[in-house]
Request: fold
Amino acid sequence: MLDRITGMRVFVRAASAGSLSAAARHLDMSPAMASKHVDALERRLGVKLFHRSTRRLSLTEAGGNYLEACQRILPEIDEAEAGVASQRVEATGLLRMNVPLTFGTQFIAPLIPEFSRRHPAVKVELGLTDSQVDLLDGGWDMAVRIGRLEDSPLQARRLADCPLLVCAAPSYLDQRGVPRSVADLGQHNCLGYSLSALAGGKHWAFGEHAELRVAVSGDLLANNGEALVAAAVGGQGVIYQPQFIVASALRSGELVALELDQPCMGLGGIHVVYPPDRRPPAKVRVMIDYLVDAFAGELPWSLPPA
Reply:
């Protein structure tokens, strides 16, 4: 199928040069192909654009009117294409990034000022939610995902490991005792994370591949880790959360990490994901590189060796 825009370019060049062969040479195509493009335009429009002779082309009245329109339209198309292409080279425009609430508030938002100083032509919209969003349907340029990545067409780069810890406040442990095994958790008030089937209100999973499921129960279920930490610090019960959420409370002594007889499940890490594109826009590339560099050293939620 012949491209209408290419046909318009052939027509304008032929009108300027007075020859289809000259237009073909300029546009790097055969004279026969140039003729096909003009013929297709004339069939689509239902008018003749050129008077043709063996020596030279001349515009019909309709061709003259169409030439004026093409000379107005084609530069606008070129400008639009150049603007879009520049976004792949220069970091510009609105970057919409979706991030889990606690991780985004504590560890992504503090990085944005320096990113903005480095890339002043990029405006960042930070969407904070613990619910997993659909990037394509939601119009997001990229997202940070915590946990095991599901099979999807999304591209991904790893930012950091994300170990899980079972924790409780000293006041709770003084009152209810210290669980020594995963089986002991069945006798404790386990505060569940409602967005996870593996650390929710009914079962907690242990082992690198979450192969061991332990029945638990508790009087609080929440869809945000910070809410669970606050409840645990208050002595309400035991929580099963990523290290980055509990690190501050562990350092202060408000929470204690429990040593059980089975390892915590492997959560899969922290990744930045973005729509499939062989060459994503520069605004996405520079943010990904910036985040990878920011988390390349010692992580802000690292804990001293036990």
Summary: The chain has three domains: 4-85, 93-160+268-295, 164-257. The first strand starts at residue 50 and ends at 52. The mean pLDDT is 90.
